[in-house]
Design a protein that fits this description.
Structural class: mainly alpha
Strand content: under 5%
Helix content: 55-70%
Oligomer: single chain
CATH superfamily of the largest domain: MFS general substrate transporter like domains
Strand order of the largest sheet: 1-2
Radius of gyration: 26 Å
Largest sheet: 2 strands, antiparallel
Number of domains: 2
Number of strands: 2
């Protein structure tokens, strides 16, 4: 059996990127499908801005706020297989319309969710929208690869995904407007207006569903280069090429699947009543469930691995390793996107005062967030808080998380940094409290609590403004009050400026502009070099940028974060194209598994958040570094895995 799939650029000058086998142009169909990429880029862009909103409004830790990403990517994990099955039954058009209708339901759900105003209610809306997007991604990604000559498949999917990049630029802008808005008194209005962009998405996708229902979408299949659809039993049961590699990759997918299911179990145990009844934490639940599933799955795998035939997509390591590469890429991407605002508001050096003038005034604010450097004498501060030696210390102690309280005894040098990060996280919840806190929650300042504290002139001036109901900065007042209460123990400089949450959300759009630029440049590079070589280069450079972020090099690290956006740009579509290469009619089924691998975005942000809570946000970027390393490995190994010299890009001089 000949499985060599070396693909060379077509020499015929008239065969364009969107030419069908009969010579007809498929560009209109391609443009219509590309609108779907714009839609889910917009939704994904808002998700990453929403993450920081919930941290502030609901007083969540970094790890807790990662449940937003979990709910989002859980939808992909749960619906990928049903979406692939439905696409096989209804065709590309039916799958697209079903997905659009589900997105509409999720978008309109945010209207009652805003009234319910609980974290799970919002997470449900996120999950439903993601479920609908799963249908669209499962259908649209492989569909773009067959809308023209096969050698341009990687270029077409990257070009379509450029619309995704445009949506990702617009998403954070909309999120910044509606999630971080303020009224005349300076109080946040984000919780009341969060539904608006999602309701708009619901209306837009209903219109798209109507347009698609009246459109003609040809149901084109990709070439069956590996004879997967061949009915000849001699072909089906022929010895597998690269059998050893295929088995290793299949088991690795089993391990990743076990981890994903373990994460779902941990989400259930994270419900306080469930966790208390079982007597275990969510992290323990994930470990136990993942370990048990992997053990059982490994036994089943060993007993049945000889039944794997050439008819199975899993017998082709370029696909099975592709699902792993997509898992780790989306894990890295989601972590970088989710914590961009946290990084820009806490890790960059002080910004110049000149940036605070004009329109930039709303983007810049005094750095009121705690950092580990603010604790000048940690043991003395910890002793006062532990002993609850005064009313302020009592207030702080009752506001600490259970994890931080356990760490208060860990003041040895080796544990000091971990304790500082935990204290900074919890104190930031106190500092960033809103002047319109819900009933039953007392603000830090009350005259009785600070009766014995010698207040500075700056504190007294802000207290007068507060009592007179004038506009003032509550976070700044809280920092002054804590410095007055613990002189020499806690440092605070009101001359240090940083980006506000709203400013950082708009900077996220600049990051997505870099992402979009990377897509277009990547398409251009793929006309000169094989797709897997371009992917390997971009993955290696993205990993190098994560190293620079990890090293805490100030503005160099901040620039590296934006460059990470640039180098991530081509990874998802290129991995997708390489993974389903040559799988014939099974491409739809293979597509559903690659979309399911997006579950990596639900798992890694929680690990990044946990590291960020303990060791700081910069240190957490060690996780995407390793993820990009695996993508680079897949890219370099792809020719051997697929028995192919590579997919090549498109000559821009050719017409549609």
């Amino acid at each position: 059996m000949n499985t060599s799939t070396s693909v060379k650029s077509v020499a015929a000058p008239k065969q364009g990127m969107f030419a069908a086998a009969d010579g007809k142009s498929l560009f209109i169909t391609f443009a219509l499908v590309s609108s779907l990429f714009l839609l889910w880029g917009f939704c994904n862009g808002m998700i990453d801005v929403m993450d920081k909103h919930f941290q502030k409004e609901l007083h969540l830790t970094l790890a807790q706020s990662a449940w937003v990403q979990f709910a989002h990517y859980l939808g992909y994990f749960l619906m990928a297989m049903p979406a692939g099955w439905l696409a096989s039954k209804l065709g590309y058009k039916g799958g697209i319309i079903a997905g659009l209708l589900m997105v509409a339901v999720g978008g309109f759900w945010f209207i009652p969710a805003t009234k319910i105003a609980t974290f799970p209610a919002f997470l449900l809306g996120v999950c439903v929208i993601a479920s609908g997007l799963t249908f669209l991604e499962t259908v649209a990604n492989p569909y773009t690869t067959v809308l023209g000559p096969k050698q341009f498949a990687a270029s077409r999917i990257n070009l379509a995904q450029s619309c995704n990049g445009i949506g990702w630029i617009l998403g954070p802008i909309a999120g910044g407007m509606f999630f971080y808005g303020q009224d005349a008194s300076g109080a946040s209005t984000g919780s009341q207006t969060l539904w608006i962009p999602y309701a708009a998405v619901g209306g837009f996708v209903l219109l798209l569903a109507i347009i698609f229902s009246f459109s003609k979408l040809p149901d084109i299949q990709s070439a069956d280069e590996f004879h997967i659809d061949d009915s000849d039993k001699a072909v089906a049961y022929a010895p597998l090429q690269n059998r050893g590699i295929a088995m290793v990759m299949l088991w690795a997918n089993l391990a990743v699947l076990s981890l994903a299911v373990g994460m779902i179990v941990s989400a259930v145990v994270a419900i306080p009543s469930v966790g208390a009844k079982l007597g275990i934490t969510d992290n323990q639940a994930m470990l136990y469930a993942s370990g048990a599933l992997l053990a059982i799955g490994s036994l089943v795998f060993l007993a049945n691995n000889k039944k794997l035939t050439n008819h199975s997509i899993w017998s082709h390591p370029h696909f099975s390793c592709g699902t792993l590469a997509q898992f780790f890429y989306v894990a890295a991407q989601c972590g970088v996107f989710a914590y961009f605002i946290n990084y820009m508001t806490s890790q960059v050096p002080s910004v110049p005062e000149a940036w605070q003038s004009g329109k930039g005034a709303a983007w810049i604010e005094v750095q009121t967030s705690f950092s580990t450097k603010d604790f000048q004498k940690l043991p003395e501060f910890v002793n006062r808080v532990k002993a609850q030696a005064d009313p302020v210390s009592t207030y702080i102690y009752t506001g600490l998380s259970k994890d931080t309280i356990k760490r208060l005894d860990q003041t040895a040098e080796g544990d000091a940094d971990v304790l500082k990060n935990a204290l900074a996280r919890d104190l930031n919840q106190i500092v960033k409290q809103s002047a319109s806190e819900e009933p039953g929650k007392e603000l830090l300042y009350t005259p009785q609590r600070f009766a014995s504290v010698r207040l500075s002139e700056k504190s007294q001036a802000l207290i007068k403004d507060m009592e007179a109901k004038k506009e003032f900065s509550l976070p700044k007042l809280n920092r002054y009050l804590l410095s007055d209460t613990y002189p020499g123990l806690i440092a605070f400089s009101d001359s240090t400026l940083t980006f506000s949450d709203k400013g950082a959300s708009f900077l996220a759009s600049l990051g997505f502009f870099c992402f979009l630029a990377g897509r277009f440049i990547g398409v251009w590079l793929m006309k000169k070099f094989s797709a897997h070589k371009v992917l390997a280069t971009f993955a290696a450079l993205a990993g190098s940028c994560c190293v620079l972020i990890f090293m805490k090099l100030g503005w160099v690290s901040a620039v590296a974060l934006f460059l990470t956006y640039f180098f991530m740009s081509i990874m998802f579509p290129t991995i997708f194209s390489l993974g389903i290469h040559g799988l014939g009619a099974r491409a739809k089924k293979a597509s559903s598994f690659i979309v399911m691998a997006i579950m990596g975005g639900a798992i890694m942000p929680k690990f990044m958040g946990h590291i960020g809570d303990l060791h700081g946000m910069s240190t957490a970027f060690i996780i995407p570094m390793f993820c990009f390393g695996f993508v680079a490995f897949y890219s370099l190994a792809w020719p051997k895995l697929a028995n192919s010299t590579g997919l090549h890009g498109v000559d821009p001089t050719r017409g549609h």
